[in-house]
Design goal:
The protein is an all-alpha fold. The chain has one domain. Helix content is about 70%, strand content about 0%. Helix 1 crosses helix 2 and helix 3 packs antiparallel against helix 5.
Length: about 280
């Protein structure tokens, strides 16, 4: 008796996802080669080289803390934000957002900038969006690590931080789905590169990073809550500042991650065979 179409479709999706998981393992030399080259390319020609990946986030952290804590002295309500320091609240959301936005900004060139390689060499194309996510998360992760050390020094450490690796992982997989979709669409729609910068700027201000949700008029909060980045930023705030985790929010983030990643991967699998013709 032939298997139903839905069962075949589910099996195909499972095999595709399994392939994405296996590629960094089976092609680890090639994968980490792309990652190293992309990191080296960012600092090519500079005297400081990789040292800038440490100095730049450290300088930004010190500037934000000085401006918002010493000069402007902005204060928040700890019951609403988990801290009375605007700098701490702001950086808790800004650092994850920066990694996300950098990955999306470079996604438009993930395939386009390597057109000659794609059309002449046979290799798993999945490596390109993967490396495009790993690099910004690793580089911005250095700044995030410095920030965590600062939070520990200020007395924010709590055992709930044990959930942080899961939150970062879910955030990264969601970002990978977005990068894969944008990179694939950019092969056919070159205008996306011009659009993505404006879209990210608007998206940033619609995400509760520079303001808590409680400051938004109640009748407009639904618009913030349907923002795909809202649950991820909120989870960072909950774990690092409020010292609890909402499993409802975690389930919301997991659902968005699966929907985005699976949908993007399916689109990529259906369109990648046309890349060589378009590129």
């Amino acid at each position: 008796m032939p298997r139903p179409f839905s069962e075949i479709a589910y099996m195909n999706i499972f095999l595709i996802l399994k392939r994405w998981i296996e590629i960094p393992i089976h092609y680890k030399t090639l994968f980490w080669g792309f990652v190293r080259n992309e990191i080296k390319g960012r600092f090519a020609g500079s005297i400081g080289g990789f040292v800038w990946s440490l100095l730049t986030p450290l300088a930004n952290l010190l500037i934000y803390i000085f401006v918002f804590s010493v000069v402007l002295k902005v204060r928040l309500k700890p019951m609403e934000t988990g801290t009375d320091s605007f700098a701490v609240y702001f950086l808790t959301g800004l650092l994850p957002w920066t990694a996300f936005s950098e990955a999306l900004s470079s996604a438009t060139d993930a395939f386009l900038s390597r057109a000659n390689l794609i059309t002449k060499v046979a290799f798993p194309l999945e490596i390109l969006p993967m490396s495009g996510v790993i690099v910004p998360f690793c580089l911005n992760g250095l700044g995030f690590l410095m920030f965590l050390i600062y939070l520990i020094f200020k007395g924010y450490f709590h055992m709930v931080w044990i959930w942080l690796p899961l939150v970062v992982t879910v955030h990264m997989v969601f970002t990978l789905g977005m990068v894969c979709l944008i990179a694939s669409l950019s092969v056919f729609l070159r205008d996306i590169k011009q659009f993505i910068g404006t879209a990210l700027s608007l998206w940033f201000f619609l995400t509760p990073i520079i303001y808590p949700l409680s400051m938004v008029p109640e009748k407009l909060r639904w618009a913030i809550k349907i923002n795909p980045m809202y649950p991820f930023i909120e989870l960072y705030h909950q774990v690092l500042l409020h010292h609890f985790i909402s499993f409802t929010m975690l389930a919301y983030a997991l659902g968005l991650m699966l929907l985005c990643f699976v949908g993007s991967v399916i689109f990529f699998e259906r369109s990648k065979y046309a890349f060589a013709d378009v590129l």
